Every structure is written in structure tokens, then in C-alpha cells.
Amino acid sequence: MTDRLVDPDPSAAPNMADVVAEPLWQVRLRLFWQGLRSGWSSFAESRIGLVGLGVIVLFGIMAMIQPILIGTVWEPAIYDPVLGYDAVVVEKTIVPDNEVTDPATQIDLFSARLLDPLLQVGDTLVVTVQPAPPSRQHLLGTDPLGRDVLSQLMFSTRAAFMLGIVAALVTVFIATTVGAVSAFFGGAVDTLFMRLADLIILVPFLPILIVLSALIDFQLFHLALLIGVLGGFGGTAIILKSQALSVSVKPFIDAARIAGGGHLHVIFRHIIPNVLPLSFLYMMFSVTDAISAEATLSFLGLLNIDMSWGIMIHQAWDQGYLLDPNRWWLMVPAGMSVTLLAGSFFLVGRAMDEIINPRLRRR
Amino acid sequence: MTQPLVKVEGLRKLYPLHKGVFRKPTEYIHAVDDVSFEIAPGESLGLVGESGCGKTTTGRMLVRLTGASDGQILLQDDGSMIDVAHVDRDGMKRFRRRVQMIFQDPYESMNPRRTIFDTISEPLQVQGIGTVAEREERVAELLEMVGLIPAPTFMFRFPHQLSGGQRQRVAIARALVIDPSFIVADEPTSMLDVGISISIMELMLNLAEEFDVSYLYITHDLAVARYMCDRIAVMYLGKIVEIGPTEELLANPRHPYTRALLSAVPVPDPSSVRPAVEIEGGIAKAVNPPPQCRFIGRCPWVQDICRRRGHPPLEDTGNDHLVSCYVAKESV
Amino acid sequence: MNETAIERNGGVQSGRPILEVDGLVMHYRTKAGDVSAVEEVTFALGRGEALGLVGESGCGKTSVAMTLIRLLPDNAIIKEGSVVLDGLNVAELTDGEMRKHRWADISMVFQGAMNAWNPVYKVGDQIMEALEQHFPDMSEAEGRVRIAELFELVGLSPAMMDRYPHEFSGGMRQRAVIAMALSCNPKVIIADEPTTALDVIVQDQILKELRKIQEELGMSIIYISHDVAVIAEVSDRIGVMYAGRLVELGATDEVFPRPRHPYTYLLLSSTPSVVGPRRRLAPLEGEPPNLLAPPTGCRFQPRCPFAAEICASQDPPSQELAPGHHVACWHWEQVPELGRLEA
User: Fold this and answer.
1) Which domains does chain B have, with CATH numbers?
2) Neighbors of chain C with 3 or more C-beta pairs under 8 Å
3) DSSP B323
């Protein structure tokens, strides 16, 4: 007498004894796996998501092979991103002053005589070039201190990933908890957290970090934690709270309370699972923010770290090469990497947004 | 008379309206105002009224989703009456085993991220009843009882894989899983198509007998209440204006509001003649209502006595039929 | 009631129907395939007549309405059939041409009056906008006079036209929606669930108002509702839709006491009523079919208690049992009188 589901093949239905025999965790694992697979198939429909993911994987590979290359192909003394040194030697012909047509192979007489006052026009001079342009030994050239740029770039990828992911995890963990607790309890707890969030949004992030960096010796990990905590109590908390709020007024929350569920049960079993998809989305965006923030701070020279994309750009600027088109390799690879990796996490976030939001609406 | 299962006395819910700079509540919405009724074991009471009359608030207070501002809710538990408003932790636990609720919206009353098994077994799980295997058996048994057959195919589905009618069956199974004695059903069929809603109502009636539960059936539809309930209480602006056995109340509606409500219900029979509705206008909000009868502004029968005296008390007119109206009482 | 029904039938003017729908087939193109939303629907609406279309959600009643007024989403295609409105085939008009006829010749009272109004404009101004589009020569003063007339007609105070939607109650908003639908003197009005979100007393008032206006103006109206009781009260004739098909069509006075299609029968016997003896209701088993892949033969066959072999293989043609009473069922003779099929 029912509006039963029209089962295509009733004989295929599992029998009850089997269902009970299968441990619950196994069922849950299977369902989780199924959810993951269907999530992936919707994600795979999004072109921008796949592009973003591709770029992330590419950077991941770069980060992983750098230590391998150092151990095998690259001589550590030359290719170490921080301590390596390689003086690229070039022969240059001396030409009269103001007649230099090709700076890579020619040097003017005045400059040459600064090195050796006996030189004449037409002589050749052996000079070391720092920064050296890309060559077979140094695919992206060397920096002003004679270090390999490609090795630096790949080495810094690891730091960027670490920073982005730690910051994002901290952000999302804090923001989800704060949002859910704030939405569920309301009242004073809510006011406290929300005013704190307003404060964090209002107070300018960068000046505070500048002041803090004068007081504390900033390591990358500290920065990741700081960005994570500020993000977690800040804007993300407000967004996730509004999502938690829309979940917490649903009748299934009432149903859980009538079933006898306490506060923790309701928050962790009902509210947070329904906020998590959005949390993951904002995790992607926090990675973007963290990578950009690190680049900015390193560029300003506020971090006590050995090497990062921001440091690379900082050094290019420090040595006066920042806008020199003839020294593009000092600035462009690092700048591109920051933009690409931050952008690709953003793209993945956008693709997830397209999956998550219509689903939320449909339910 | 046997001891009632549920006894509600002077139940009241006031919502303050905050105004002014200091947000001091100056006005109150009298959502539920001095409501009293009893439900016998195994009996179903229909709470009928238009939107905003306080019927849902009353239901929510009975399951303690909303705290009452005043009044008493007594629930019979093993022969003794427990006061729902003043129970300790242990009493609350017992209360949660005795009282359940079925919600209106089958799409929103289930967590979309939990399986049907999780949803139905939730009361067992949070109250720590049975082992996982026992819960699975119990859920399967209930799924079969509510007509979701074969049970194993439904156990680990998600709500969005089920239709509205099927979800409402799951909601019924969830309400019955801990063997309650009292269920508040808040318009459980109003969002379903006619055919499906009838099968849900049939199911609820059959299971009420089998599980020996009483319903407080909240609905705006007198025809549905007639089908589901032994007695009907009609609410208007937070007050019960008339209460009586279903057929008696429908055959001899005494309160002018009940009469209007009844004559406004369309009848699926073009040959039937419906009396004209005597009242006009829509329902108002009960913000600081005057002491007189709540219905005074719309009443076609209003007389001097109504203006002079307070809201009329519910008085018996015979046949267990109570009405809260000075004029109707006289005409009996 | 009975008397008014006869009066109304008497009021139907003879001659060519105002609206003729013939063999209408409308599909929605989706990624998963074609959804056959309206399949071979044929009916006519007489001048001054009230026709009720009734069915479960997803049966295609709103799709029919949207086809008539040509407010279809982009993925909808009218595959076959014609919709002739007073001699004009609406189904073949371009969108631009249709714009001239919509509201002026055929208008609609939408379900959900809450969302029908833009909250930031006065209600009168929103009606004025519709008037201006169809009567560009009308002055503002004339327009206001017209709106005042309309408001009086639907039982609203003319002063309300300078109010904002949030100042209206649900019932008043629905009245204003009706005024809007009447504003351009349409030949046909479609009322799609006009009272669904309203309380019974207000619903009663609105339905009475609509019936009064229809009689006064001699308007032709199509009511669409999931509620058989509402349709029984307001319609001269009733069309029962199931899974995109019109399964039964006939005078309300004939169909209600003696439904001939099993679906109509079950629909009526599963509707509770406050009058008459309290009887056991027969539940309607199963769920409507998936219109991406409708069942072969009769679409009601998987849920039908009278289904036989022929039902699964061959689609039942529409038969005229009595003048004006059409049924699409192989076994209409087996359908018992109401109240006889009891568990």
C-alpha cells in the first residue's frame, strides 16, 4: 500500500542478515567512497577546476623532485638554493665608450679599465656575471649572489605548499568550530565571536604583522599559524556562521533534540557536517590568501626565512633589478609562481563552489 | 475517568517585542494564551486553526522545543504524572523516550548527510539503547512496518534518494523507534500530494493502534482532522475556542469561528450546499490583546456581554463538547 | 451551490469556444533526455466558462498553463498541436508577437502571491506598468481610474493602490494579483493555484470573488489546482491530468458523482471531506511515473487497480462516453461508484 521506490530488481536487494553482518564502519567507508567518487565526477566536469588541479599537481611535482635533483644531478655546492654559488664566466670584447651594442658580449672601455687599467679596445676580458642569464647549466639563470634560480624556485614551492595548507587548515578548523558554536548557542557567545571577527576585519593585517615582525623572529610556520588564526576568527568565521545558522534552524535539528541529543551531538553530528562542504571551499580560498600574504611579507623583508618566492622577488628588488627587463629571470619566475599557485587554488575553489552551492540549494 | 496521558493546564507563551532605545519589551505577542486540554491514552486530539493561531507553538511546547512562559504540562509515565517543565536530567531522559514529533516538511526534517539508518536510529544512539546490530534489526523492522520494503535497500540510502512520501514514512519510523506513548504530528501530510497523504494518514492510524500511541495532530485542514482524530480543538489567536468529539463538533459547531471555518472548507462534491461564511477579514496578530473575547472584532454575533466581560471561559455544553462563547452557550 | 452551478452553465454563451487546445505535445529538453510534460492534450474552453484542471504535482497542469500563455523556459518545445485563442494560433507566434497578446488576450493569476510583487514599488504603480505597455495612449489619470475600478472589483479599497506590497495581507495581495490579471481586459484568465498558500476563510473569500467577477464580466477562466475540492466548487467542467495526459474531461456535475477514469476515482476517494459520512479513504498507491521514460501503454497502468494486459501495451484512446464526457481508459466500465471500493 505504498509509494514505494520502484525497485528495478527486487531480487538484487541485499538480505537483512548480510546487512547486519557487515560492520557499520565498513558501510560508512563504502558510502564515503561513493560520495567521494560522485563528488569527483562532478568536479571533473568543471574545466577551470581541472586546470587549477593540474597546476597544483605540477607544482607538487616540482617541490618533490628538487631534493632528488640536489642529491643526484645537481651539485649541492652550486645548486643549493641558499648556500650554492656558481660564478658564470663570460668573455667580453672591449669596445669604445658609448658604442656597446650587445651587453652580453661587449663591455665599454671605461668599465673594463676599472678592472684592469691596461686594457685596450679590441681586447677580450673574462668576467663573472652575477646575475647570469639562463644557460644550459642554469635553466633560469642565477641570482645576484650566483645561486641557481630554478633550484630556488622549486625549493620555495615546498614552503608555499606548507604555508598555504597549514594556514588553510587552521583557518577552517577554527572558523567551522567558531561558526557552529556561535550559530548554535547565539546570545553572548555569538556576540563575543562576531565582534572579535569584526575587530580582526577592521584592524589592518599588514601593519600588525610589520609590528609583530619587529618583536618576534618570524619563521614560516609561525606565519602560517598566525594567518590561520586571524583568518579563522575573522571573515571566514562570519561566512561559516551564517551557513551554520541556516542549518541550525532546520527541522532536523529539532528532531535531533527531540531524540534526546545534547549540544555536542547536535553541533558535531548535524551542524558541522552540513557546514563542512562550504568550509572546504573556503579552505581553498585561504590557501590563496596565505600564499599571497607570505609573498607580500617576504617582499617587504619582514620574515626571517631563508628562501621563498617572496624572498626571491625581494632580492631582485634589493639589488635594484626589479624592473630591469634584461634581468627578467630574477623576478618573473617567482612572480609567476606566486600568481599561478595562488590562482590555481582559487580555481579549484571556484569549481568546488559550483558543485557545492547548487547541491545545497537542491536539498 | 481513566488517568489522562497528557494534561495541559493554563499553557501560555508570550513573545516580547523589543522597541525603543533600551530595547525594553513593552508589548507581547500572546502566541498561546491559557490553553488547557487533556489527551487520554490511545486517543488522538486534532489541533485545528489558521496560520498564526498558535497551534504549532503549542505542539513545540509539548515536546519541549520551546519553553512555556506559564502553565503546566503533565505527562503520565508508569502511572505517575511528571511535570514536563520541571524535570531533572533523569526525568528529561525519560521524557524523551515517551514523547516524539513528526514534522511538516519531509525535505528539511532529515539531515541530508546522514543515512536513513542514522536518522531512524538517532534516538537509540543518543540514548545509548541497544548494540549496533540490535539497532540495525530494530530499524529494519520499523522500515518494514512503515512500508519501506525491502528494508535493507533503504537502510543506507540518503534522504535525497527518497520521495517526499517515503521520507515521511522514515519520519514516522524515527518517531516510533523508541516506543513512545505520545507523538506530536505537525501537519505531516500538508506538503504531500493527496493520494500519498492518505496513505501516510492510514499508516499513522494503523501504527497508532499497534504501538498504542496518542497523537496531537496539528493541522489547518478540518477534513484531515476529521479523518485522523477522535477529538478536535479549534484554536483562534492563541486560545482554544471550541473542543469536542470530532463528529459532534463537526455536526454541531457552536462557536461562530468554528462555524466560519467549517463552512469555508471546500467540499469535493459539487452537489453539496455549503452554508455561507459569516465572517470577514483575515486573522490578526495577538499583540497585547484587549481582555475581551479574542474573536470580538470579527464576530457576527457580538453582543453587550462580550464587550463587558473578559474572554469567555471554555464551558461544557453537553456531550463532552466545550465552547468558549457567551452567546453560543446561551443558545444551547 | 447547485443553483449557481446551473446558472453558470446557463450563462455559458454558445458559439465557437474562446480557446481550443488540440493535440498539444510539449517536452522539456534536459541533459538526461526529453521530459514528456504534456502529451496529446485536447480540450476547449467555452466563452464565459470555468474549466478546472486538477492533478498531482508534476502531472503537467502548470505546463499546460504555461504553454497557453507561452511563458515557457528555453528548454521547452511545443512539438505538436495547436492552441487557438479566439481564432489565433498562439503556439505558432514568435515571442515578440506573443508579448502583444499576453495580458491583453490571455492573462494569469500566479500561485504564491507573496512573490508576485516587487517589494520596492507601490502595488498601483506595478499594475500601471502593465497598463502602459498595452495601452500606450492611456494617460496616468485614466490609468489610476482604471486601477481604482479594478481594486473595487476585486474587493480592495482603491486607496490601497498607493501602498507597498508588505502593507497587504496574503489575501489582499492575491486580490491585487487578480486585479493585475484583469487589468487589460483579457479574454481568458488562467488561475494557477490561486489560493494554495491561503487560509481556508481567505481562500473562500477569494474563490467567491473570482466567481463573482467571472459571472459579472462573462470571463472565461481556467482554474488549476491540486485540490479536487476547490475545483469542484469553482468549475463548470473539470479536466483530470495524469503524467502529462488529460485522462478525463467532463462537466463537474457528471464527473464528481460518477468518475469514469480509475485515476479520477482514486483521486476523489482519497480526498477527505468534512461533510457526508466519515468513510475509509482509498489510498492512491505508488508514485507518478518518471516522465523521462514514461511507462508503455497507459501511463496510469503501473498504479491502476484495474490494469490488464492491454493497458501495458496499448495507449487507451480518448472516448466520448456521453456528450462532453471524455475518458482515456480501456476499462472505464469497471470503475465502481464512489465509496464502493473499500478495504
Assistant:
1) 6-331 (3.40.50.300)
2) A, B
3) E
